[in-house]
Design the sequence.
C-alpha cells in the first residue's frame, strides 16, 4: 500500500460520488476513473480534481483511456453495470451485468493483479461471488459493499425516530443486499444504550421496513437510484483498507463454513484493514434470524445457479 492508488471502473453516479468523497477526505494520492462510455471518465475526472482545490489536499484524478490505465491499484472499485429497466426481469439484469463483470474482471486481473476489489454492481452478492470465481484470488481480496450502506440507512431511520444520538448509532445489517436483508435490532445501540430501552417494538418494526426499502424510497422521489449514500459507503470502506483501521463493517464476503455456509457471498460483519477482509466475525443468531439468513442465502444461491447454468464461470 505505497501509492494509495484507487481505480474506479464505472464512472457513473456511484463511482463518481465515491471518487468525490475520497478526494474531499484526502484519502488517496491518485484515483483513476474508467467508463465504457466515452467522455464520462474524462469529464468527471477534471471536475472532481478541480474541486480538490478546496480539499485538505490535492488528489490526482485521471481518466483511463483504456482498461490498461487501471494499473497497479491498491483498490479497484467496480460499479460498472446497467440499471434494471421496466421490461427486464431480475434474471435478465443478472445476465447483462454478469457479462459486463466478466469483461471488467479480465482487465483487473491483468493490470492490477495484487489489488483488493470492492464490488458495488448489482445484484451485489451474486456479482461479488462471480468475481471470486473469475479471479480465483484469496477471498480476503474481494468484498461486496452492502452492509456499510444498509447500516447507514438503518442509523438514519433510528435517528429520525429518536431525534438524538447522531454519530452514536451502531447498526448491523446482514444477509443479502436486497429484499431479504436482515437489519438486526437486537444489536443496535445509541451511545451504548440498547435501542430496546428507547424505542417501541412498533417503532423498530417500522425502522426495519424503511431500512429494507431505503433504496426504493429514493428511487420513488428521484426517478433514479441513489448515489450519495452508496458513494460515501464505498469511500468509507476504501479508507478503512488504505488506512488499515481494522474497522468492523458488514460486507458481502465468501463464506467458508462461517454461519454454517460455504461457497456463497453474503453480508456478515467483517474487519476491514490493509489486506481487505482481515477477519469474518461470527455472531450468534437466534432461531428466527437463522431462518431469515437461510432465506437470504438461498436467494443468492438462486442467482449463482443461473450464472452457473449459463456458463458464466467457465
Ligand atoms: N466498463 C466500464 N464501465 C461500464 C461498463 C464496462 N464494461 N459497462 C457499463 N459501464 C458504466 C456505464 O457507462 C455507467 O457510467 O457503468 C456506469 C454505471 O453507472 P450508473 O449507470 O450511473 O449506475 P450507478 O447508479 O452508479 O450504479 C452502479 O451500483 O448500486 C449499483 O445497481 C447499481 O449496478 C449498479 C451500480
Sequence:
Amino acid at each position: 500500500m505505497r501509492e494509495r492508488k484507487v481505480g474506479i471502473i464505472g464512472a457513473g453516479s456511484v463511482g463518481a460520488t465515491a471518487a468525490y468523497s475520497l478526494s474531499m477526505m484526502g484519502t488517496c494520492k491518485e484515483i483513476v476513473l474508467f467508463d465504457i462510455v466515452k467522455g464520462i471518465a474524462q469529464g468527471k475526472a477534471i471536475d472532481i480534481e478541480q474541486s480538490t482545490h478546496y480539499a485538505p489536499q490535492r488528489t490526482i484524478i485521471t481518466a483511463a483511456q483504456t482498461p490498461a490505465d487501471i494499473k497497479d491499484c491498491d483498490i479497484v472499485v467496480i460499479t460498472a453495470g446497467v440499471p434494471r429497466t421496466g421490461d427486464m426481469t431480475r434474471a435478465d439484469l443478472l445476465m447483462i451485468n454478469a457479462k459486463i463483470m466478466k469483461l471488467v474482471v479480465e482487465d483487473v486481473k491483468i493490470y492490477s493483479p495484487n489489488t483488493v476489489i470492492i464490488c458495488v454492481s448489482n445484484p451485489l452478492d451474486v456479482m461479488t461471488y462471480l468475481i471470486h470465481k473469475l479471479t480465483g484470488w484469496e477471498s480476503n481480496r474481494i468484498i461486496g459493499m452492502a452492509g456499510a450502506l444498509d447500516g447507514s440507512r438503518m442509523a438514519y431511520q433510528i435517528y429520525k425516530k429518536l431525534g438524538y444520538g447522531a454519530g452514536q448509532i451502531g447498526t448491523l445489517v446482514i444477509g443479502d443486499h436486497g429484499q431479504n436483508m436482515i437489519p438486526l435490532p437486537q444489536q443496535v445501540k445509541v451511545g451504548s444504550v440498547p435501542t430496546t430501552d428507547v424505542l417501541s417494538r412498533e417503532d423498530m418494526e417500522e425502522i426495519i421496513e424503511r431500512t429494507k426499502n431505503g433504496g426504493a424510497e429514493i428511487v420513488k422521489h428521484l426517478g433514479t437510484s441513489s448515489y450519495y449514500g452508496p458513494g460515501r459507503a464505498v469511500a468509507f470502506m476504501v479508507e478503512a483498507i488504505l488506512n488499515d483501521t481494522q474497522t468492523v463493517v458488514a460486507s458481502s464476503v465468501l463464506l467458508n463454513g462461517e454461519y454454517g455456509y460455504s461457497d456463497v457471498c453474503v453480508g456478515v460483519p467483517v474487519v476491514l484493514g490493509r489486506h481487505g477482509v482481515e477477519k469474518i466475525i461470527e455472531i450468534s443468531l437466534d432461531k428466527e434470524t437463522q431462518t431469515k439468513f437461510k432465506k437470504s442465502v438461498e436467494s443468492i444461491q438462486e442467482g449463482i445457479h443461473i450464472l452457473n447454468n449459463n456458463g458464466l464461470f467457465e
About this structure: The chain has a mean pLDDT of 96.
